[in-house]
User: Which sequence fits this backbone?
């Protein structure tokens, strides 16, 4: 199941992170217009890349991956999650932002990208539909756990340890898991999500060891 | 060759025009952030749409189309053409903008989209590589002819006839085919490009009639 094709998924995720971060850099260096065009070019090139360079896999499976990649950016993916995030940030009264809102945002903004990356690897590696579904459940849960861990680190780590400004969620009065559940509640939620993620991989036995380690890393990390 | 699949190409072009125009509208109505996200969502959804809904065609051909769609937006397509256009517009001395620059801009900004739309229709309809190439030559030439005709209309039509502000290229001191070649020179260039476009379709005989009519329309249109 874990084949050379995983390299494409890293490329895919890399392009996304580059896309988001490059947008901000490019806006500063080249101005808004060119930054938007660069984003469109990178996004389109990633579809071209997958369609052109995925060798040794049936074209049906490559198309399946492209459908999922396309969906992961749209209204039920990254774009939808980001818009909801902006909408919630903009609310004057942050107490109206619920845990359900938060889960929706992070499921679409972060977890959907992990979901499509892991599912694509499974599909290209020849997984059955049931195996793909198990991988997706794993990815959605670690995606949410990643965000809960981020919220915890923001209040427990120093700026130096974190490698980015600590406490900025509090400063910005942003609704986080820590704010909604308290520090202990957020830690319990991260544990619960990680446990669910790992349980989804039970059918794979030892073959899932790298993914299980990744799940543990997500909540154990210090920055 | 001309099958139901052409509907996807219209959808594709439609999405592009919507994308460009919607960006400006969305920026006004929803702000910059949401407009960029909407653009990304539309762009990704168009790849998903082609991968998911192209029925009755071999998956190899669908992947070929996706590779071309992806390339048509990148640095050698729409984004590259737009950036070069901004670069040339920004030059203080417009006399440094050559006909070669102009052809490069419009080949990538406009003609590349027509090229991929026409080539995709041919590929999905079962065309041979030689037939696809002939269609591409046709499309690139009508794409450029379209732009030359636009430059001519800008100076020969009234705002009322044009349905948009006439003479705005002159007001903006923008380099156009009319400025470089004169009105008669630009008309001759449009004729030459249309002739080349139509000659590329000779092998198709009568089957190419709709595309030949489209080529004539492009330079005969009044707005």
Assistant:
């Amino acid at each position: 199941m874990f084949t050379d094709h995983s390299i494409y998924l890293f490329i895919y995720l890399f392009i996304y992170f580059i896309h988001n971060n490059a947008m901000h850099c490019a806006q500063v260096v080249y101005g808004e217009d060119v930054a938007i065009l660069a984003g469109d070019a990178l996004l389109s090139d990633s579809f071209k890349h997958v369609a052109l360079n995925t060798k040794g896999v049936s074209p049906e499976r490559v198309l399946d991956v492209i459908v999922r990649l396309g969906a992961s950016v749209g209204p039920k993916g990254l774009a939808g999650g980001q818009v909801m995030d902006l909408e919630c940030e903009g609310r004057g009264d942050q107490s109206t932002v619920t845990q359900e809102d938060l889960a929706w945002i992070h499921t679409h903004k972060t977890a959907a990208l992990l979901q499509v990356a892991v599912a694509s690897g499974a599909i290209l590696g020849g997984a059955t539909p049931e195996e793909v579904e198990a991988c997706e459940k794993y990815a959605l849960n670690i995606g949410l756990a990643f965000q809960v861990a981020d919220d915890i680190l923001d209040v427990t780590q120093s700026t130096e340890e974190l490698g980015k400004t600590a406490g900025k969620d509090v400063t910005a009065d942003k609704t986080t898991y820590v704010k909604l559940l308290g520090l202990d509640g957020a830690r319990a939620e991260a544990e619960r999500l990680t446990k669910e993620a790992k349980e989804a991989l039970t059918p794979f036995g030892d073959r899932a060891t790298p993914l299980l380690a990744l799940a543990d890393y997500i909540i154990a990390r210090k920055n």
Q: What stands out?
A: Chain A touches chain B at residues 23, 32-34, 36-41, 43-49, 51-52, 58-60, 62-63, 66-67, 69-75, 77-80, 82-83, 86 (CB under 8 Å).
